[in-house]
Specification:
Keywords: Oxidoreductase. The chain is an alpha/beta fold. It is built from 14 helices and 20 strands. The N and C termini lie far apart (70 Å). The structure holds adenosine-5'-diphosphate.
Length: 484
């Protein structure tokens, strides 16, 4: 079992209206450690009824929460940030146990997750309206920003903490209560956050965590007219479904959906830096992030050398239980994920790709997979069209800038992209022409709390983090003061 400094952080109950509770009919589901296949415990399996209760509690808590001054809300968020950092070792251990990522990555995520509380707490004090120049002498035109109201959030398992705080922090900062449904595969990180919310002084009902039947909980969140905004991070098909379900009540939506990131290495790139960036971008979280490099395009002149240096680095990655020191790649989240990876590799090999390393399940068993590199990959292969969400790097060859931009943009997704080049004119040109919400130039890691995270095309709507991230939780009110 888990050896925590503070065992009370591991909760096996949901958190609704400031109370720890079970499902109404007492059902539970097990939570499994993907590295060992062992059960870590259970959580309640809730549905529409419990979700409704959490939404109603949020609505009841809303007036008092929005009435607090920005500074009062900021102080609570600051405390929540501090508590996360103080308990970082335990939070990271919980995360690695339920999600599989290496402990060092889990610790990195905990501090990244906490940073949203700090940042949005500070931003709460900077929610500003406007006074507009009036077209008539007897009128004054005023614009204010108000909290949108009760919010709901649905989050994925790949970042069990950060995907939550990136939504909860701006909601609370803006003056909105929020009901969360974390992924059923990684509920303990979410519940640990609820323990700390309580300790930080978040009033009851302002933050609730409902766990269980995703379809039933999601349907209630979408249909309930009290909920004014839904924020979702997950797959594009589920995003489309939620959008449809929110249409009858015309909810505001933030959607962070799938990506199919291109990673381009031009002839003039610093090759060592490009290799390092590609490894970091591809193999972080075992390739299970929506901004992971999914298609690596390398220009003809440096292709063979890049492939050689990159494969050498990938071969050196240590696969193992994320709890062990020095591990670079943990298990995938579940067997289904491995099956997708295997399909993508088999499809590529059958169409002429070459295996440079890896390609198989890892000898450690469970859902461990060998870090894999494929060369001579072409656009007709599945790896080019779909997000692999696993540790497979497909290397495509290209000749011209024009050609690679067309290839990179030839996808319904538009979340992140990366490229390595040194010619300043090319850097600017390519950055402008790539159709994604985020572009990493000469870096493989782009996420932080200050920058706007989000996509274009079918990768989603809205932005998270940054000063823009607050807007998703605010509505504009125009006040026309007449008869002056
Ligand atoms: P992934 O493939 O990364 O698991 P999903 O989109 O399936 O992506 O999952 C992301 C989140 O969406 C999880 O919290 C999951 O429980 C939730 N989810 C899945 N299906 C639905 C649904 N029909 N309604 C609401 N939430 C859902």
């Amino acid at each position: 079992m888990l050896n925590l400094k503070d065992p009370s952080l591991l909760r096996q109950q949901a958190y609704i209206d400031g109370e720890w509770c079970d499902a109404i009919e007492g059902q539970t589901v097990a939570v499994t450690n993907p590295a060992t296949g062992e059960s870590l415990g259970t959580v309640p399996h809730m549905g529409a009824q419990e979700t409704r209760r959490a939404i109603e509690a949020a609505n009841a808590a809303w007036p008092a929460w929005r009435k607090k001054t920005a500074r009062e809300r900021a102080l609570i968020l600051r405390k929540w940030n501090d508590l996360m950092l103080e308990n970082a070792d335990d939070l990271a251990a919980i995360m690695t146990a339920e999600q599989g990522k290496p402990l060092a990555e889990a610790k990195g995520e905990v501090s990244y997750a906490a940073s949203f509380f700090e940042w949005f707490g500070e931003q709460a004090k900077r929610i500003e309206g406007d006074v507009l120049e009036s077209p008539a002498r007897d009128r004054r035109l005023i614009v204010t920003k108000e909290p949108i109201g009760v919010c709901a959030a649905i989050t994925p398992w790949n970042f069990p903490s950060a995907m939550i705080t990136r939504k909860v922090a701006p909601a609370l900062a803006a003056g909105c209560p929020i009901v969360l449904k974390p992924a059923e595969l990684t509920p303990y990180s979410a519940l640990a956050l609820a323990v700390l919310a309580e300790r930080a002084g978040v009033p009851k009902g302002v933050f609730s965590v409902v766990i269980g039947d995703a379809k039933a909980i999601g349907a209630e969140m979408c249909a309930n007219p009290i909920v004014r905004k839904l924020s979702f991070t997950g797959s594009t098909p589920v995003g489309r479904l939620l959008m449809e379900q929110c249409a009858p009540t015309v909810k505001k939506l933030s959607l962070e959906l799938g990506g199919n990131a291109s990673f381009i290495v031009f002839d003039d790139a610093d090759l060592d830096a490009a290799v390092e960036g590609a490894v970091a971008s591809k193999y972080r979280n075992a390739g299970q992030t929506c901004v992971c490099a999914n298609r690596i395009y390398v220009q003809d002149g440096v292709y063979d050398e890049f492939a050689r240096r990159f494969t050498e680095k990938v071969k050196a990655l240590k696969v193992g239980n994320g709890m062990e020191p020095g591990v670079n790649q943990g298990p995938l989240i579940e067997d289904k994920a491995i099956v997708k990876v295997e399909n993508h590799i088999a499809d590529a090999l059958s169409k002429g790709a070459r295996l440079l390393t890896g390609g198989k399940r890892h000898e450690l068993g469970h859902s461990f997979f060998q870090p894999t590199v494929l060369a001579d990959v072409t656009p007709d292969m599945l790896v080019s069209e779909e997000e692999t969400f696993g540790p497979v790097a497909p290397l495509f060859r290209f000749k011209t800038e024009e050609e690679v931009i067309a290839l990179a943009n030839n996808t319904e997704f538009g979340l992140a992209s990366y490229f390595y080049a040194r010619d300043i004119n090319r850097v600017w040109r390519v950055a402008e022409r790539i159709e994604t919400g985020m572009v990493g130039v000469n870096t493989g890691l782009i996420s932080n709390e200050i920058a706007p995270f989000g996509g274009v095309k079918q990768s989603g709507l809205g932005r998270e983090g940054s000063k823009y991230g607050m807007d998703d939780y605010l509505v504009i009110k125009y006040i026309c003061l007449g008869g002056m």
